[in-house]
Structures are given as C-alpha cells and as structure tokens.
Amino acid sequence: MRVLLAALLVPLLAGCVERLIAVRSEPGGADVYVDGEKVGQTPIDVPYIWYGTREIVLEKRGFREIRERVALNPPWWQYPGLDLLTDVVLPFTITDRTELSFHLERAPLSREEIDDVLRRAGETRALSEPAKP
Known about the structure:
This protein is an alpha+beta fold. It has helices spanning 2-13, 82-89, 111-128; strands at residues 16-26, 31-34, 37-41, 44-48, 52-59, 66-72, 93-103.
C-alpha cells in the first residue's frame, strides 16, 4: 500500500521548466506570428517546448513589418543530463524567459494613399464652405 501511495505522489513532486518568449513592441498592439502561426498581439508571453530557431514576425497597420529569426538556446541547466534534474527531480517550476523588444517604424504612405487623403480633404473642404449666393 505504501509503495502504491508513493508511486502516486512522486509525480506531484516533479519539477518543471516553463519556456517563454516575451515579445514586446513600441507601439504595442502589433500582431505576432511565431513560425507562421498567429499567437496574439504585443505585449505577449508565448510558451514553447523545444529550443531552436524560430521566425518571429510583427505586423501593425501603418508600420513596417518586422521579420526576424531568433535562436532559442538552452541555458546550461537544460543540457542533456542536467535537464533530468530541472525537468523531473526539482520540486518547483523554473522559468526560462527570452525577452524580445522591437521598435516599429512608420511605413511611408504610397502615392495612392496620399492621393486618397488629398481627395477626401478636398471633399471635406467643399462641404464646409458656405454656399455662394
């Protein structure tokens, strides 16, 4: 009975490693894609399981797209052999957080966008002018 009880309680004592990519941008509210999959908007913490290279893309209307490949390298305590200790033996959670901050640059307006703004400004001006007798 004690052996069975111990076998049931051992998994509750197991450690864990939480891996996160913390993506921030200035200004905030940019759509974030990790390896082609939309994961949300900045600021966001994206959990992941495996280390390696990821493609991070940020998009926001009126701003230039940012596309960057980021290497997520394991810390020393996640090397084979030591990872058994942090993933299974330690009775608490360790967080491995990779912080990524981006500054979004305004995208230049296209000729069509400029023409559209000037057209709408002219229409608004015409509506606001008093009628001529």
